[in-house]
Design a protein that fits this description.
This protein is an all-alpha fold. The protein has 2 domains: 128 residues, Cytochrome Bc1 Complex, Chain D, domain 2, CATH 1.10.760; 76 residues, Cytochrome Bc1 Complex, Chain D, domain 2. Helices cover 48% and strands 0% of the residues.
């Protein structure tokens, strides 16, 4: 897929999916179901047992529901999640998604220096034209908050090991949960090197929302909206 086609696809999907309604989950009912999840993802949904486990807290409801559906159906096979969602109804999944979406998400701090942060910021906000890598912020927002109505995930605050693993899986075609979106994540990650993926993962760990940004945070933890 050419760079212009990727950009056109991204723009069309963002606009059309943003108009789609959220699922109707019950956070209170989801909390009652979350005990087993907390064993790996932490009681707060953001203190994973392993750095490759994603933070669930603050992630958008539509994205969480969709990923749980994929895991339950084995469309997204994850060895450690095998059987964890067996017996859960569609409403159970919606309730879990609503619960974790209602929790406050965490923000970490990028460990890279100014040059590394600047390089990652340039990729995130502008892409890499010569390698047909689109700007990540086109669908994930300038502050990494994602697009909740469209179900595009929040990226900020995710463990670096998880972000690296996810991007490499898309790049290598091992993760194919973007098929409903024209394979755009696989296309987007295809032109990224391992080093660039690491820089992006570190940058996203500390990317801050606009209402929490400060001059020092912009200089070190990432740029804000």
């Amino acid at each position: 897929m050419g760079f212009q086609k990727i950009q056109t696809t991204l723009a069309a999907l963002c606009l059309s999916l943003a108009a789609t309604a959220h699922g109707a989950g019950d956070p209170a009912a989801g909390k009652a179901l979350s005990l087993a999840c907390s064993a790996c993802h932490g009681m707060d949904g953001a203190t994973g047992l392993d750095p490759t486990y994603p933070n669930l807290a603050g992630q958008n409801e539509r994205y969480l529901l969709r990923q749980m559906q994929f895991i339950q159906s084995n469309k997204r096979p994850i060895l450690l999640m095998t059987g964890q969602l067996n017996g859960k109804s569609e409403q159970d999944l919606a309730n879990l998604a609503a619960y974790y979406a209602s929790l406050p998400g965490k923000i970490g701090q990028a460990g890279g220096g100014d040059e590394a942060i600047a390089q990652a910021r340039a990729i995130y906000r502008g892409g890499i034209l010569e390698r047909r890598v689109p700007a990540c912020m086109a669908c994930h927002s300038p502050s990494g908050g994602g697009n909740a109505p469209a179900g595009f995930p929040r990226l900020r605050g995710q463990p670096t090991a998880y972000t690296e693993m996810a991007l490499k899986a898309f790049r290598e075609g091992e993760r194919r949960t973007d098929e409903d979106y024209g394979g755009m994540m696989r296309d987007a990650a295809l032109g990224l090197t391992d080093k660039e993926i690491s820089l992006l993962a570190d940058y996203l760990l500390g990317l801050m929302p606009a209402d929490h940004a400060s001059a020092s945070a912009i200089g070190h933890a990432g740029s804000a909206e």
